[in-house]
Amino acid sequence: MLTDITLGQYFPGTSFLHKLDPRIKIVATMIFIVAIFFAHSLASYAIVTAFVALNFAISRLPAKFIVKALKPLWVIIIFTMGVHIFTTPGDVLWQYGIFHITKEGLYQGALMTARLVFLIVFSSLLTYTTSPIVLTDGIEHLLNPFKRIGVPAHELAMMMTIALRFIPT
After folding, report:
1. In the chain, where are the structural domains located?
2. How far apart, in whole angstroms, are the C-alpha atoms of residue 122 and residue 110?
3. Integer distance in angstroms from the first to the last C-alpha of the chain?
4. pLDDT of residue 167
5. DSSP state, residue 15
6. Under the phi-then-psi rule, with left for phi > 0, alpha for psi from -120 to 50, and beta for the rest, what region is 90?
7. Collapsing DSSP states into helix, strand and coil, what is residue 94?
């Protein structure tokens, strides 16, 4: 069961994304995470979908890695969809007792579920294409300016990388 979990694992390769500086990949992932929270329309989600698909194509990783990244979190994804479907007020499409499904709930549920899937897949792409040592170095370089105010950049980078490495476990 746990052998199928790919979240947090590195897969060696020679693609453009594999060779890209880890700081650029980390900053791009952070920008993507912020940007996905500003997406509210179907058009913006189409752009995000195209961006994620393009990055996976550039990485030359098998498409099955997307499914493997989502596999350990399917319960959370379904729960997210269910919460929005059954709790969002609006035009009722179906009702049975206290349970009701609304048009707005389906729409919000689909968008929130897609947002969660995009966050997982794009974050997984970072770990798929960046080795743990290189990722640690990239995080440390990004945190170096904070050393002036006493932030232990090396220790924080190491803790973040260890946490990422042990996600599958």
Report:
1. 12-130, 131-169
2. 18
3. 11
4. 66
5. S
6. left
7. strand
